[in-house]
Automatic annotation (TrEMBL):
<dbReference type="InterPro" id="IPR005839">
    <property type="entry name" value="Methylthiotransferase"/>
</dbReference>
<dbReference type="InterPro" id="IPR038135">
    <property type="entry name" value="Methylthiotransferase_N_sf"/>
</dbReference>
<feature type="domain" description="Radical SAM core">
    <location>
        <begin position="119"/>
        <end position="354"/>
    </location>
</feature>
<dbReference type="GO" id="GO:0051539">
    <property type="term" value="F:4 iron, 4 sulfur cluster binding"/>
</dbReference>
<dbReference type="InterPro" id="IPR002792">
    <property type="entry name" value="TRAM_dom"/>
</dbReference>
<keyword id="KW-0808">Transferase</keyword>
<feature type="region of interest" description="Disordered">
    <location>
        <begin position="411"/>
        <end position="435"/>
    </location>
</feature>
<dbReference type="InterPro" id="IPR058240">
    <property type="entry name" value="rSAM_sf"/>
</dbReference>
<dbReference type="InterPro" id="IPR006638">
    <property type="entry name" value="Elp3/MiaA/NifB-like_rSAM"/>
</dbReference>
<keyword id="KW-0819">tRNA processing</keyword>
<feature type="domain" description="TRAM">
    <location>
        <begin position="353"/>
        <end position="417"/>
    </location>
</feature>
<keyword id="KW-0411">Iron-sulfur</keyword>
<comment type="function">
    <text>Catalyzes the methylthiolation of N6-threonylcarbamoyladenosine (t(6)A), leading to the formation of 2-methylthio-N6-threonylcarbamoyladenosine (ms(2)t(6)A) at position 37 in tRNAs that read codons beginning with adenine.</text>
</comment>
<dbReference type="InterPro" id="IPR023404">
    <property type="entry name" value="rSAM_horseshoe"/>
</dbReference>
<dbReference type="GO" id="GO:0035598">
    <property type="term" value="F:tRNA (N(6)-L-threonylcarbamoyladenosine(37)-C(2))-methylthiotransferase activity"/>
</dbReference>
<keyword id="KW-0004">4Fe-4S</keyword>
<protein>
    <recommendedName>
        <fullName>tRNA-t(6)A37 methylthiotransferase</fullName>
        <ecNumber>2.8.4.5</ecNumber>
    </recommendedName>
</protein>
Amino acid sequence: MATYHIETYGCTSNRGESRAIERALRDGGHRPADGPEEADVAILNSCTVVEKTERNMLRRAEELAEETAELVVTGCMALAQGEEFREAGIDAEVLHWDEVPEHVLNGECPTHTPDTEPILDGVIGILPIARGCMSNCSYCITKFATGRVDSPSIEENVEKARALVHAGAKEIRVTGQDTGVYGWDTGDRKLPELLDRICAIDGEFRVRLGMANPGGIHGIHEELADVFARNEKLYDFIHAPVQSGSDDVLADMRRQHRVDKFREVVAALDDRLDHWTLSTDFIVGFPTENEADHEASMDLLSEVRPEKINVTRFSKRPGTDAAEMKGLGGTVKKERSKAMSELKMEVVGEAYESMVGDEFEALVVEEGTGDSVKCRDSAYRQIIVQSATDRGVEVGDFLTVEVTGHNTVYAFGEPTGERQRPGGSRSSAAGSSQP
């Protein structure tokens, strides 16, 4: 997206989340618009205190959907009552606030600050392992800011990871514009070794691998699948953005992969892992996408059934080659986006519904809305535990959770048995107040 408009309602927490969203968008080269009519995307950070507020949020979302090219709804009402927007027929993407920048970036690689230093946010450690990418996608403006990949040594990244663990990190997020090409600039495909070395650090923590383009990891995908299989600390999760199910469109996008390479990456992980999460992205309405290309994307989504899917309408980015192409009409893009988003909700809902009734080992990674906490199982699927204080559950705990229900894009769970506290202490599922 070239421009954005953001509106924030509710508490100080919502305002802080909006500031974080804006920082990420500005880092990615995006700029604020004068209003929703001039914006490529409008972001509504919603509140849900009382029924009147909910009605106001629905009315404002409906207005924004008419005023702007694309609407994203986040915030408390999106998390607690996201289905209300869909039932009202509002054409919007309903997302958790920390998913908004990734969605708005139109399939572009994420951008990090020039020093790419690690950051500790609560119990989450952010570890940028490299800066830049090896791609030349026709729609992406990020490459102008980041350049070609520059990979620090394995030893340097491992020391940064070790420092994060010693500082209290329970989850290390390995990030980069394209983690799959880490080491390409030195002539060595080093990602599998780096992940092994990080997982070998002493301590109780989990590791999440960030975005890796299929073209970047193809060629090491078998080795990488083995790394996932042998490291319990590594979340069985991979974000591999395919962007289209059509080889013709992928060629016009100048992506480094074709659909078969993507399928081979997925097959390698399917072969090694029983319970894992595939996250992928689709760009809908690329200028050269015809109806058959769109159907190919829909068919691919139905075939591989990713548990996490980001659907983005194509938007021209100034200075890119794709900006010079004759675009599709807004109505066509909106209809295709709606069709894919509906299929997305079906596929994701099916994945979370399949978890109901089973128990999973999970890490509590951050606080949620109200007195809830967000947990991640071994495949990085989100499980919400409510009434966390009464249950004695705290951020940083490792616990066993029985999934009791789901809300399409995340599950609800009840803690069972004992859980391990940061520092090694234990607490019962009945809550810390019990004698």
